[in-house]
Amino acid sequence: MHEVPGDSPEALASYFLSGEGLTGVEAQPHDHGAADGVSSSVREFEYRNHLARIETTYRVTIDGEPLRGRLEVLPSGAVHYHRFPQYAPASAVDVVKAVIDTVWDKPQVPDELATIDHEHPAPSEGTHDHPGGHS
Fold first, then answer.
1. Residue 134 has pLDDT above 70, yes or no
2. Ordered DSSP codes for 20-73
């Protein structure tokens, strides 16, 4: 399993920005995930003159609230979360830990790069409600 260097949110953020883990990965057609925390992906490949198809579905919640945004399994088997485009660990568990460490309890930040026809909501937008005013 690939280990992410460091154990602080700052080290994780630096790793995200490095792009390591995405070398040679091409963007696949995708959506941005459902509001209910469900993401599905399909991988197809040929092996020894056979066509194989793997359909993967994740339903992810944190503290009972759905994770917004799409998770997908890349052809390599690494897991990609749309809101962390430079990060693709070997496990969905690692993705969820990264979400908790970096954006889950943070206030909403407007996405200044979003466009009307292809909007990318901020990582904490609509993901959950917590006592004490977080949303």
1. no
2. TT-TTPPPPP-----TTSEEEEEEEEEETTEEEEEEEEEE-EETTEEPPS-EEE
